[in-house]
Give the backbone structure.
Amino acid sequence: MPNTQKAEKLARLAHQVEELTGSSLYEFRQENKYQPVFGEGDVDAKVMFIGEAPGEWEAKKGRPFVGASGRALDEMLACIGLARQDVYITNVVKDRPPENRDPTPREIELYAPFLAQQIAIIQPRVIATLGRFAMEFVLAQFGLTEPGQKISQMHGRPLEAEADYGRVTILPLYHPAVSLYNRDQRQTLEDDFQVLKQFL
């Protein structure tokens, strides 16, 4: 579909997230004057990055990955010749959970359909998950879950899946925040982004 049509569909979805009063995170958003974080980037992107949920800085700005981990993500993109506007970035859950806790099953149930629709509209060829939570969620959605899967074993390993629109590669990655605290992990993340580069 033409990208103007995609953009309109995504805008309608974003408005639905904004009005998601049935979510317990909606009240938390209102109380703290936060914004929902729907996602941003190229609506025709080949690569979609999916994180867990926005943090405080993201919720204040209404944009995904804009704090320190966002800068780390931008650096990783640059090392393979990409900029933020070349990809699409979103999260499983679109509102910030208190204290950055893991989203609850009820919250995931509420927000997951929006992510499914984002994937269906954008039709990425590669979905790169950022962190353990996003990896587990996305692999389960595509029927790729196996017992005992850990991100320490799965990162940087492309997995083939079937979406409604055709083949898609799932590439689990560590969360960019790991590169802020551990130099070895930064090198691992850079190496995994080189794997991603093969699909561009």
